[in-house]
Every structure is written in C-alpha cells, then in structure tokens.
Amino acid sequence: MTADTSTGSVAESPLTERLEAILLIIEEPHSLVSLAAAVGAPVPAVRQGIEALVDEYDGRGKGPRRGFELREVGGGWRLYVREDYDDLVADFVGGQAPSRLSQAALETLAVIAYKQPVTRGQVASIRAVNVDSVVRTLLGRGLITELFQDSETGAINYGTTDALLQNLGINSLDELPPISPLLDDGSDGFTERA
What we know:
It contains eight helices and five strands, in the order αααββααβααββα. The chain is an alpha+beta fold. The strands form two sheets. Strands 3-5-4 form a three-stranded antiparallel sheet. A hairpin with a 6-residue loop joins strand 4 (144-149) and strand 5. Helix 2 packs across helix 3 (43-57) and helix 5 (103-115) crosses helix 6 (120-127). The longest helix is centred in the first third of the chain and has 15 residues, at 43-57. This is SMC-Scp complex subunit ScpB. Keywords: Cell cycle, Cell division, Chromosome partition, Cytoplasm. InterPro entries: ScpB_csome_segregation, WH-like_DNA-bd_sf, WH_DNA-bd_sf.
C-alpha cells in the first residue's frame, strides 16, 4: 500500500520513493550512511531499498529494464546512464546549443590547463573558493576529464581534453601562452626610497 504524501508526511512515504528523490538530484556518489541520513532510515533498510531499486532498474522486477542504472562507484551510489546509451546521450548533449562559460569556469579551466594533473582541492586552494560545481560543469561539457585517482588520498586528478584544444583552436597545451608574463611581479605599491 502506498502512502498518500499529499496528506501525510514525506517520512511516511515508501523508502524506495524517498531514495529515488535523492538519487535523482545528486551529482556524485553517496554512501549508504549519507543516503540513510538523507531519507531518515536505518542503513540496513537503505541497503535493502538500494538493492530493490537496482533489481527494478535492471528489469528483474515487475517492469522493463530502464535506460539508466543505479551503480556503486567509489563506495557510493548514484544513477548513471546505461553504457548502451552513452553514444545517444553524447550526441544529444553535444547537439545542444553551447552556452558561454562563466568567469569562475574560465578561471578554473585555466588552473587545470596550466597545472594538470591537479586535484579539485588544489584548484580550490589556488582560486580560494569552492570549485565543486564548476568542475562538474567542465566535466559535463567535456572540457576536462578525470585522469586518475591518487592511491594514497583517493583524490581525483583532472586534466584537459581534446575538446578544449578544439575549442581554443590549438593543437597542444604547449601552444598556451606562457603564464609568467601575465602575472604581477608584486612591485605595485612600493616606491624606491632615496
């Protein structure tokens, strides 16, 4: 029996529905503990709910196999497009009208281009702001990619893609202008003493 959420509280709705609501909006994998906290349920119940959703999406339940799947990646769970549809989705996304990058995205992209391989934390340290959403945007546009995961820290290292080179009209990163002439030498505000 399904709870009527129009008159009852969300906490009374089925666990799998609450999990789906959270899974639809997250952009990075979340652990069972994180999901349990989000939906207000014990971890074992969330584990069972996740298993039920995996079976349902894979067509092992009452309905058909879906074009997306629920996968565990890096100790967390997230919805992904099924590999069968990667090309279809890439064509669709690539065919959308490109929009301009924000100043924050351009700055983050420049740091990654000049410092790669570089972690999100290193970029945030250089820019002195949180860059999580900007990195997701750049990944989504195919301008940067995950190169490797550091075996000691687990941090993902990012680098630029050929798509960036194409957008910039260059053949390699060696064609980027040297950065040092663009930097201030720090002498502004100081006057020579006589």
